[in-house]
Amino acid sequence: VQLVESGGGLAQPGGSLRLSCAASGFIFSSYDMSWYRQAPGTELELVAGITNVGGMTNIADSVKGRFAISRDNAKNTVYLQMNSLKPEDTAVYYCRARLTIRPSIRYWGQGTQVTVSS
Questions:
Q1: Sign of the torsion angle spanned by Cα atoms 19, 21, 92, 98
Q2: Cα 52-53-54 angle, rounded to 5 deg
Q3: What distance in Å separates the CA atoms of residue 2 and residue 12, rounded to the nearest whole number?
Q4: What is the spatial distance between Cα 18 and Cα 69, in angstroms, rounded to a whole number?
Q5: 3-state class of 30 per DSSP?
Q6: Confidence class for position 117, pLDDT limits 50, 70, 90
Q7: Long-range CB contacts (< 8 A, 24+ apart) of 102-108?
Q8: Which of 10, 93, 98, 116 is deepest in the core (most CB within 10 A)?
Q9: β-strand pairing of 9-11 with 112-116
Q10: Per-position DSSP letters for 70-116, written without gaps between them
Q11: Are 72 and 22 in contact (CB under 8 A)?
């Protein structure tokens, strides 16, 4: 089982980044997917989630209107489009897979750093 995040890096305030999380080793379409983030000294924060077939999404209030989550089950990939980035969005971003019918089964990626700074 692997979840590999990519697309992180340095962005200017007001800029955009798109994170990708490529999954392998499990039946991607059977899993709800989420993006979490953690800034230094803070707790892990749920940023966005999407159901296994993409019918429903949820976005944290802190990023609502700026971030969007989507998935492509044919490519076994989940995305996080991040627009109007702010310095407070700086964090390590992780993707997580959770088996829809058995939520105790979860997999995590290794994380990708996003830094928003001028």
A1: positive
A2: 95
A3: 30
A4: 10
A5: helix
A6: very high
A7: 107/1, 107/3, 107/26, 107/31, 108/3
A8: 93
A9: parallel
A10: EEETTTTEEEEEE-S--GGG-EEEEEEEEETT-TT-EEE---EEEEE
A11: no
Task: Please write the tens of the pLDDT for every residue from 82-96.
Answer: 999 999 999 999 999
Which residue is it, tokens 């310095």? 87
CB 33 within 8 A of CB 46: no
Residue 7 burial (CB < 10 Å; 0-12/13-18/19+)? Answer: middle
Residue 51 identity (one-letter amino acid) = T
* C-alpha to C-alpha distances, 16 to 36, 44, 78, nearest whole angstrom: 17, 22, 17
Give the model confidence (pLDDT) of 56-84 as tens digits.
999 999 999 999 999 999 999 999 999 99
